[in-house]
Amino acid sequence: MDTPIVGGCLCGAVRFAAQTPTLFCCHCHCAWCRRAHGAAFVTWFGLKDTAFSLTSGEGALRWFRSSKASERGFCGTCGTTLFFRSTLAPGEMHVALACADGPIDRAPSLHVFYDARVPWLAMHDDLPHFDRESEGLRKYQAVARTPGRP
Q1: In the chain, count of helices (H) and strands (E)?
Q2: What sign does the CA torsion over 124, 31, 45, 61 have?
Q3: Which end of the chain is more exposed for a tag (fewer CB within 10 A), N or C?
Q4: Neighbour count for residue 36 (Cβ, 10 Å)
Q5: With left for phi above 0 and alpha for psi between -120 and 50, is residue 12 left, alpha or beta?
Q6: Cα–chain-centroid distance for residue 135?
Q7: Residue 81: left (phi > 0), alpha (psi -120 to 50), or beta?
Q8: Strands annotated E in the chain
Q9: CA dist 59 to 50, 79, 120, Å?
Q10: For the segment 5-47, what is each residue's pLDDT rounded down to a tens digit?
Q11: 0.85 cut: is pTM over it?
């Protein structure tokens, strides 16, 4: 996929562009993501900072520090949560997949923080499920962040 990923918020004030390849795409079930989006889980795709650009709305974009290590970017006009960045993933920008205007270069490949999922939604896919303290999650993070890996 050579076409950039483009997208934005509900009102259109904040717009972004991202160059592929993405680093990952996954469903996150942590309480912070659920509350920030008002949803059962959030699907994120990750990019190198250098592959991400804000194309409009710098004045509308607000950042909320959701933990000591992490911030969430949202539109100050309509409230759409679009971005996540953290010292736990230096050099990366994570973007809510639902804010992309179209498809990206990969499908979601796993569920993270699965132990924090809501009890009222059953997942019926064959994707791996990793809990917060899962050895599998640590291995996935190491592989997903390998330089040069598509």
Answers
A1: 2, 11
A2: positive
A3: C
A4: 17
A5: left
A6: 21
A7: beta
A8: 5-8, 15-18, 24-28, 42-48, 52-56, 61-65, 70-75, 81-86, 92-96, 111-112, 129-130
A9: 21, 14, 38
A10: 999 999 999 999 999 999 999 999 999 999 999 999 999 999 9
A11: yes
All residues at 6 or more sequence positions from 90 whose CB lies less than 8 Å from its CB, including other chains: none
CATH architecture of 5-144: Beta Complex (2.170)
Which CA distances in Å does 85 have to 14, 49, 142?
17, 10, 17
**Which residue matches tokens 């973007």?**
95
- The pair phi, psi for residue 123, each rounded to 5°, is -95, 130
Q: How far apart are CA 111 and CA 134, in angstroms?
A: 12
What's the half-sphere exposure (Cβ side, CA atoms, 13 Å) at 104?
29
CA distance 32 to 136: 21
Which ranges of the chain would DSSP assign to H, the alpha helix?
31-37, 135-144
**Residue 6 corresponds to which tokens in the numbers above?**
């483009």
CB distance 113 to 67 below 8 Å: no
